[in-house]
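Support request from a user on the community tier.

User writes: "When I paste my C-alpha cells into the form, the page sometimes reloads and wipes my input. The last time it worked, I copied everything first. Here is what I submitted, just in case something in the input itself triggers the reload:"
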C-alpha cells in the first residue's frame, strides 16, 4: 500500500519524452517511502484509491512540477558587498574592484571573522527564500574562507542546513576561488596548499561532494585548475568549473576532459568548448542573475549549446558580490527574457538539467517512478506562467520526500 495518493493533478513531469513539459492531464502520483511508486493518468490506476493508499489527497486540478533545483549557489558567507555595487554603478569594472582588493577578498575577510552560528543563521534566511519558491535541492559552495579552517566551517554549515532543514544539499569545495592576501604573488603555492592540506582535510571530514575552481584572468590559470582537478580525482570527487565568464581561458574544454558535472557561466564559451562539453556530457549552467547584476553585455552562446546538444541548467548563483539573488522564479524569467530560452527550457533548467549538473539525474529532477517524491503544487493555468510572471509566488504546496512542508491551497 502506498503512503499517499495524489489525485486531480496536472503533471509537468519534465521527462524527456512525450508531450511538452512531459505533461499528463488528470494525473495521479502514488508515493511510498519518500519515493514515487506510481505516476500516470488517473484512469489507469491499478485499483480504487482508498485501497491503494493510506491517505488520498486532492490537488484541485493544480499543476505539479518536480521540486526545483538551484545547482549553483554561494549561500554561506559573511557580510555583503552593497558598497561595490555602488562603485560599479559609478563606473568601476568587476575586474578593477577585484584587483584593488575588493570583490571576493572582501567577503573572505567578513567570512573569516564570522562564527559558525552567524554563518548558519544568515544562510538559513537565504535558503528559506529559495524554499518558499519551491526549491527542494540546492548546491552550496565554499570559497570565502581560502584557509583550511574557514573553508571547513562553511562546508559544515552547508551540511548542517541539509541535516536540519527539509532540503537536499550538495556541497562543493571551491578553495580555488581567489588568491588570499597571505599568498599574494604565490598562486602555485596556494594551489599546493589546497591540494595537499585544505581539500584532503575537508574530504576526510566528509564535507565535500564535488570540487570547483574559478578559471579566469582574475582567478586561476588552466594549469592551476588542472592541478586542482587532479587532486579531486585522486580523492574520488567529481569536478565542476566557473568557466569562460569574463574571457575564454579554455576552461570548458579542460572541465570536459575531466568529465566535469558542469561548466558554469560560459558567456565566452567557444565552439570547441561546446563540442567538448557535449562529448563529455558536461552540463552548461547559465547564471542570468550574475549576467544582469554586473551588466554583462555578451550573452552565453545559447544557439551553440543547442546545436551541439549541451544540456542547459539554470541557477541563482546566490552570492554577495555578483548575484545577491534568492529567487529561483526570477531566474526563470531572466533566462527567458535575457537569454531567450523557451519557458520549457527554463523549467527544465531548474529541474531535470539542474539535477544532472549535481550528479543527481537518477534520483531527482523529473516526476518518474523510483525518483524522490519532491514536488511542488502551483496555482497556475499553464507551466509557462512560472517564467512569465515577475514578482509574486504561485506556489501552493511543497512536498519533500512525500511529506507536505507547507501549504497555501487557496482556490
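"...and here is what came back when it finally went through:"
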Amino acid at each position: 500500500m502506498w503512503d499517499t495518493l495524489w489525485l486531480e493533478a496536472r503533471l509537468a513531469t519534465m521527462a524527456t519524452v512525450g508531450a511538452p513539459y512531459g505533461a499528463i492531464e488528470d494525473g495521479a502520483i502514488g508515493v511510498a517511502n519518500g519515493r514515487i511508486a506510481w505516476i500516470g493518468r488517473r484512469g489507469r490506476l491499478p485499483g480504487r484509491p482508498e485501497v491503494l493508499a493510506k491517505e488520498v489527497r486532492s490537488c484541485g486540478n493544480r499543476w505539479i512540477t518536480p521540486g526545483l533545483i538551484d545547482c549553483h549557489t554561494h549561500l554561506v558567507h559573511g557580510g555583503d558587498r552593497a558598497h561595490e555595487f555602488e562603485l560599479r554603478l559609478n563606473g568601476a569594472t568587476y575586474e578593477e574592484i577585484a584587483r584593488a582588493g575588493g570583490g571576493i577578498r572582501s567577503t573572505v575577510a567578513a567570512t573569516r571573522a564570522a562564527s559558525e552560528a552567524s554563518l548558519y543563521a544568515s544562510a538559513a534566511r537565504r535558503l528559506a527564500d529559495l524554499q518558499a519558491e519551491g526549491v527542494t535541492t540546492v548546491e552550496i559552495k565554499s570559497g570565502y574562507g581560502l584557509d583550511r579552517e574557514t573553508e571547513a566551517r562553511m562546508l559544515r554549515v552547508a551540511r548542517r542546513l541539509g541535516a536540519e532543514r527539509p532540503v537536499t544539499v550538495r556541497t562543493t569545495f571551491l578553495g580555488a576561488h581567489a588568491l588570499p592576501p597571505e599568498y599574494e604573488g604565490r598562486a602555485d603555492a596556494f594551489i599546493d596548499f589546497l591540494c595537499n592540506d585544505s581539500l584532503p582535510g575537508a574530504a576526510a571530514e566528509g564535507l565535500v561532494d564535488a570540487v570547483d575552481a574559478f578559471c579566469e584572468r582574475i582567478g586561476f590559470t588552466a594549469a592551476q585548475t588542472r592541478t586542482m582537478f587532479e587532486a579531486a580525482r585522486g580523492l574520488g570527487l567529481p569536478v565542476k568549473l566557473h568557466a569562460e565568464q569574463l574571457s575564454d581561458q579554455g576552461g570548458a574544454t579542460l572541465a570536459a576532459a575531466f568529465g566535469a558535472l558542469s561548466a558554469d557561466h560560459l558567456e565566452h564559451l567557444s565552439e570547441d568548448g561546446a563540442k567538448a562539453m557535449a562529448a563529455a556530457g558536461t552540463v552548461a549552467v547559465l547564471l542570468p542573475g550574475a549576467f544582469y547584476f554586473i551588466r554583462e553585455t555578451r550573452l552565453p552562446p545559447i544557439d551553440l549549446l543547442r546545436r551541439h546538444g549541451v544540456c542547459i541548467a539554470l541557477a541563482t548563483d546566490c552570492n554577495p558580490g555578483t548575484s545577491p539573488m534568492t529567487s529561483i522564479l526570477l531566474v526563470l524569467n531572466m533566462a527567458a527574457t535575457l537569454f531567450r530560452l523557451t519557458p520549457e527550457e527554463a523549467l527544465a533548467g531548474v529541474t531535470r538539467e539542474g539535477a544532472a549538473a549535481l550528479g543527481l539525474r537518477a534520483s531527482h529532477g523529473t516526476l518518474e517512478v523510483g525518483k524522490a517524491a519532491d514536488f511542488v503544487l502551483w496555482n497556475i493555468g499553464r507551466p509557462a506562467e512560472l517564467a512569465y510572471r515577475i514578482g509574486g509566488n504561485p506556489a501552493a504546496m511543497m512536498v519533500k520526500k512525500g511529506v507536505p512542508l507547507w501549504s497555501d491551497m487557496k482556490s
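Agent notes: The reload is a front-end session timeout and is unrelated to the input. The two ends are 30 Å apart (CA to CA). Residues 238 and 398 are 30 Å apart (CA to CA). Escalated to web team.
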